[in-house]
## 1
Amino acid sequence: MSNRRNFIKTAAAASVAVALNSFGVKSEEEINTVVSKKGKKPIVLSTWNFGIQANEAAWEILKNKGRALDAVEAGVKIPEGDPTERSVGYGGRPDRDGRVTLDSCIMDEQANIGSVGCLENIKHPISVARAVMEKTPHVMLVGDGALQFALSQGFKRENLLTEESEKEWKEWLKDSKYKPIANIENHDTIGMIALDADGNLSGACTTSGMAFKMHGRLGDSPIIGAGLFVDNEIGAATATGHGEEVIRISGCHLVVELMRQGKSPQKACEEAVARIVKLTKNRNKELKDIQVGFIALNKKGEYGSYCIQGGFNYAIHDDTGNRLIDAEFFLK
Ligand code: SD4
């Protein structure tokens, strides 16, 4: 009798698994088998040239079997703290009022999320985003509220506007024209996604946003689902480029959902870019003025990237080393 009961239970479980699979959802067992077969972990990916150094910091944690969440936070803190990187953290270009306002978000393997937007005077917004995730009942804090929270957590108030960035802003004020041009701001946002030795995924994304934006403007980078998304059963994705375009398609959530449907990370990024291309054309906007790049990683440790136009690269670190790859692009 107990055997029969077990048989019925097993058969019922199997039919649930089959039913789920017909919707493109993999059973946990299936996913775990794939992960252990592939063994391409740990692995970390991040956007732009500065991803190389950021990956080094992340790899220190990953190679010692550390958690992907700790790795991505440590990784993106490198460009955040570097005043020569003019589009992230300290030394980032200000908004049109001369204020450096930072956007960051972080997501772990359990879908815990934290985010800050338009945060001023704090050098490491990613750590504030993590504190929002771990120490508050909320997922997103912006502006003065985010600053007050950061100070209450012991973060130091600092001036983030460097002489160089201030000079550029004063130059910009002469014309005061806001027209972000693809790749001109070079090095942009750092988005980082990692798969750790335990097979868990996490991601982080942090930026000073578009230079000379309106005060209070948020891009995709602090928005979970736009600039970053992680689903520990499927994969992770992060974005760089014109945030408005990424938000328009819920970019990184879309990339992960496409992977859930069985697309490779590469194909998923291509399809998300294709969506932006189509919308841009439908809206009679110029594609040549837009840059968006996605990077994606799946649960097996496979990765891919795609962007609208050439010039975007990303860094990847696994047990074979750390390297920079030019992303494939749409506009030839
Ligand atoms: C934003 N995606 O604020 C960010 C910044 C960026 O090219 O990556 N700029 O829209």
## 2
Amino acid sequence: MKDKLIEKLIKAEEKRQAEGLELIPSENYVSEDVLKANGSVFTNKYSEGYPGKRYYGGQENTDAVERLAIERACKLFNCKFANVQPLSGAPANVATYFALMEPGDTIMGMDLSHGGHLTHGSPVTYISKIFKFIRYKMKNIETGEIDYDDMLKVAMKEKPKIILAGFSAYSRELDYKKFIKIAHKVGAITMADMAHIAGLIAGKAVRNPFTDGFDIITTTTHKTLRGPRGGMILIRDNEEIAKKIDKSIFPGLQGGPHMNNIAAKAVAFGEALTPAFKKYTKQILKNAKVMAEVFRKNKIRMIGGGTDNHLILADVYGSLGVTGKEAQDVLDEVGITLNKNMIAEDPRKPMDPSGIRFGTPAITTRGFKEKECRRVAELMILVLKNKNNKKIKESAHKKIKALAKKFPIPKKFV
Ligand code: DSN
């Protein structure tokens, strides 16, 4: 590269990723082929519109790429329509709201503090000024059970147009049938934001909301799905909804799609359609369960009591007297990256909450199995319990580095 400053930073980031262990549950490593497509000449092209209906010329290759991405996405998630143009998860959600509602209409989503996402109605977002968001919560924080009775009561009163299932910090499986039952009672559309678990659904490691009859799924493509940074909207079978979504993404919200990114999505979807990917997603779950087991044995409280998916939310402040920020920092020192996180009914503040959120998608991509995950969880707890002990931290760091060296980030998965 001619730009030595940027080249140096790319190399430094490659080294950081290679030498440390990535436990942020929304991160992963893509294949060399996904990187190649993302860095391809498609980045040079403007292609507003959709395949066969573009505003500019020269679209014979972009049309073919986008059609392939759509076809593979529909096969992967068992649905009829897909829009692969959303730049990421937030615009996918916003475009879906605008496609199906008028300003002032109501959406019911999971409370942010109980695991929901900012775009599900946090008051700090612009969309919360446009739509009315009402929330549901867990009934029992120790088991993660959602309060479906209260959900029904509130939905009957407020008559939301959309009932939204999905989360970014929740470790249990949702009962999609109950969401649908409530939605049918109040005439709402069902939408699942499955950004975190898209890969798990694609690999059939967890349930697909479409199987139970959900109308729409929104997602990012870069988490468990192991694709490039981006978003997508899937529609089970309703053509009218699909048309509204297309219009809402373009020209409603976005301009020219990022075709290099769509090419990379197509490559990732192709990889996700293989038996190897199925095996990978099952291993993600096994690995997360083992880590939860170690935390349980050490009497560290987990929100929801454990995990059914790829992530764990642990109350390290309540259990060990270490704040989420302290835990994140000290684990960073020994080569483990994860994130501090609010827990339900957190007595602390967002910038230094009680919890940490971590997961297994990236280390499973590296080839970690139960044995290595157990070891990582034990090392995490050892470091958290001895956060001021230099010797213990140095020794843990060495072990983490050795594990990372033994399991290099693969370049190919199929
Ligand atoms: N920032 C993502 C996550 O880490 O869960 C959600 O958008």
## 3
Amino acid sequence: MSEISFDQMSEQDAALELERLAKLIAYHDERYHGKDQPEISDADYDALKRRNEAIEKLYPQLIRADSPSRKIGSVPAAGFTQVTHARAMLSLDNAFSDEDVGDFVGSVYRFLGRLPDNSIAFTAEPKIDGLSLSLRYEGRKLVTAATRGDGTTGENVTANILTIKEIPQTLPASAPDIVEVRGEVYMAKSDFLALNEQMAAEGKQTYVNPRNTAAGSLRQLDPKVTASRKLRFFAYACGEMSVMPAQTQSGMVTLFQEWGFCTNPLTKRLTSIEAIIAHYNHIGLERAQLDYDIDGVVYKVDDLKLQERLGFRSRSPRWAIAHKFPAEQATTILRGIDIQVGRTGVLTPVARLTPITVGGVVVTNATLHNEDYIKGIGQKGEPLREGRDIRIGDTVIVQRAGDVIPQIVDVVLSERPSDSVPFEFEHQCPVCKSHAVREEGEAAWRCTGGLICEAQAVERIRHFVSRNAFDIEGLGEKQVEFFFHAEDKNLKIRTPADIFTLEKRQSQSLLKKLEHIEGFGAVSVKKLYAAINERREIALSRFLFGLGIRHVGEVSAKRIARGYGSYQAFAESVKAAQAPREGVKGDKGNEAWQELTNIEGIGQIVAEAIVEFYHEPHNIEVLDALLAEVTPLDEAAPVASGSPVEGKVIVFTGSLEKMSRDEAKAMADRYGAKVAGSVSKKTDLVVAGPGAGSKLAKAQELGIEVIDEDAWFVLVGEA
Ligand code: IVH
């Protein structure tokens, strides 16, 4: 269709043209996001949007309710139901060097206590760069297939999985009644290339890499589309099983094969660190020849009983690790450096780059960490990159490793423009203009704007709604920005409580405004409200993490939640807590302070940050408003009730002989007990090994029950 030029355009023409563009852009949005099959190039799409905006500028009175310029982000893929995993799907810790692998193997031996060298076997297999999937069979029939999602709940993609030939839909009679097979869905490199060739031949946009294509193919609402893409599957782990049909990881993999699954042929069972590293190197050499992308090698403790003893940290198992291949690098030009403000005020320099493909992914931004990093100074003052600084205009080496944020690792000095100047890091917040400070021992400059800094406030809300905190779907980065800066006071979200009052602040007319202006559409507005209302009751740990208290990460939040059990108990105690006075010898703070720091992993720094947070009147105001809307749920102990030590506070002291200190803690955790670092009136039980000293004496003085390691095993029923 020929396009009318602007100067010939009457108001009527303009109205018609805006209508045409709105429809056309909506159509291409749907092709791109909804169907994963764009028809026009990104550049052509951008040109349409620019034309729309230019006309809107000339005739602001004609801006349509459904204008493409008013849309935020893409519509989330609707239509998949959620599946709660019977057993969480966790991620893996990473090792980047042989030394890290040695540390991992060492930690397994240490955790399990005294075992002779080379007595623990490990499996080593490629880490497939795909998407993890959990397949659930009941009565030997495939009943659900779910993506990993956030690890606890994923998307139900069963209809799509049924189209994958490599996945058996029934299991042989010998398989247990309930079986969960976990593994990786991926697209072979050859199938990916063929698909792209076909797309190009049809004049369609090609795909970026096999992983994203596999992801897009799996998340199709129409299983016919999934069926038309060749997806494959490697089985490598199990989830829930009604009976364990094997004793070892390698035995399990053999069974998977017998049941008809593909398993990776490069899987090996090995016992020494040297053999493990040799296999890693071997797989590294094979890597380019393989018909699928891999990004490392996964090592797992072979014995499933030992796996169980080793258990999990918050997000990953202690019995496995991913040994990553070295990162991929590319060179490009550094166009500019922006300063980003984090929720605690940290100023992070971000590199804006001429777009470049690094290992199959287009990179436009990379982190520059902090001021010293740009200057070529390391954390301990040592020179980085032999002291080379990084300047705007430089040719830089960008590195991307796995899912981590890309970084600039070096500059090519020979390419440096002759007129370049060193970068000057302004010691001022780019948003609220407050001055920045750099605390001793810290690399970061921090905006001192605190509660007045809008950038920090936005980041705090983004953190609050993020996946591992309140996890409110529909409040992404753009939506948070929109609500934060909304002019209408009934649309504004300035503090967490505002999120929960949004719905009741809406008059019908405002609701209409939101539906249209925001491009949310009536359905999405309803969905957003539903997502918000679902979080009016929330796990205490998520609540605490969401507050964004400095130094309180997910792990500390969990520990605090377990330690206090209820929000009331926590808040009252923390408000009463007094830290030890500086310079006063022997001052240990008051009892509430002791209670806080007795929690495993909560040291002086974290405790101080928490107490400080609760001493700031504004924070209390914000919290009270939030608590009027939201109820943090008491944290239940994770173990089945009836454990004899459930809810008890236990101190381990002296040397332990049958288990390591870490295993003791993990065991207590498993049985619902709390482990404390020091003995106080609150201690219920002390487990003392040989050589116990002052803690034992204190326990005796306070009349607390003391048992030895053997009695501990008897007590928890593991003797
Ligand atoms: S084992 C409890 N084995 O890597 C951990 N994971 O970074 C069970 N992955 O989410 C995972 N290849 O999607 C395992 N051979 C392999 C793997 C593998 C790829 C993925 C998986 C997992 C992620 C963790």
## 4
Amino acid sequence: MADAPRLRFAPSPTGYLHVGGARAALFNWLVARRTGGEFLLRIEDTDRERNRPELTDNILEAMRWLGLDWDGDVVYQADHLDEHAAGARSLLAAGDAYWCDCTPEDLEARRGKGASGYDGHCRDRAVAEGPTTALRFRAPDDGTTEFDDVIRGSVSFDNATIEDFVLLRSSGLPVFLLSNAMDDAAMGITHVVRGEDHVNGTPKYLLLRDALGLARPDVIAHLPLLVNESRKKLSKRRDSVAVGEFRERGFLPEAMMNHLALLGWGPKDDVEIRPMREIIERFRLGDVNPAPAFFDEKKLEHINAEYVRALSPEAFVDAVEPFLVRPERSLEPIRQLAPVLQQRVRVLPDAEPMVDFLHLDEPVRDQASWDKVMGKDPAVARAMLKSTIDAFAEVEWDADALHACLLRVGEEHGLKLGKAQAPVRVAVTGRSVGPPLFESLEVLGRTATLERLHAALDDLGPAGA
Ligand code: GLU
Ligand code: ZN
């Protein structure tokens, strides 16, 4: 039997963890968790100018939040630069690499401005190592480099199109490609699953592995691009892409993970919302579609709403708490109201305007609601509030009784329930829309309800004013 698969996520800490990275991590993680393999994390921190340590923290934090747990210690690529440089020198010794002393100006003069690629000028010049020389890989002149991509099928590159790329810069530092290929081998990675933007680097990666005598990985997969609603590649500037930003906007990690799983993959039964353990069971890399995947925020919101609904009242309160303006108040009323709130909350910040009347001394008055309900017909509002105050002083304090009571008060004034309850809702919650009124009143309690009805009546002023 083959050894257990070993997969990895290998982010560069040059930016926050974005949804594309998280999706790559997730797909690797899914394979590892289903097969009993390992999911490793390697921070590719060799770009000294662009790396910032706090970005590594951000990546780890976002992965923990999502629940993408990795196996073993985090591997830092920068700790292995000496091994990578030694690998490059072994290629030199074997004749698979050579020193090049061309300056950028030389290159540009030979190939013309704007063009790229290296013409092999120093291949047979036997340049000696010096303070400004770079080590280049001697890429094969002919033939092809091929691989089977589980998602894309067989992919083939003409070796003639592969330039003699740099392995060691004149500073002596290995390039990303070399470190990446050698680290994967050192970590025993069997499945290389990464973004489509790496397809063109893969032949170089494979040629290097061959030349270094390091067996190729068993499985290679390049995940589809993520695009926005205009079918444009998701961009940091245009789109919201950082995982941390979705957390701040009130998405649940479980909803985020479910949505990420659908970016390029769909279960055969088309059931999109399902527990992670079922996604783990069903996910197959070979079922991933190579076409660009639409990162649909509306769909994410819909999925999030479903996950919010499914929370226990306690879990709902825990999730919502960081988004409340006054979390120091008792959360018990919110817990009591949770089942009805959960039907209405799509993202966690939606809860605050639905519950602020419970934890503020006075409701936040929404002027438009007041004008619409109280201002339009103050006489009706006044009459309703007065009668309601009398009726509510006596009634049994639960949602059903309050409902029946207000229905009756409304009838006395010739009003249907909707019209009858509007002034009561605005008086008590400050707004004309919100969670179901009678449950809300039950939770708020008689004393506070009556106080607010009185206060609204005072604000309406005397009849005829
Ligand atoms: N460090 C690379 C990146 O962040 C990933 C390389 C890989 O997965 O092989 O794009
Ligand atoms: Zn050269």
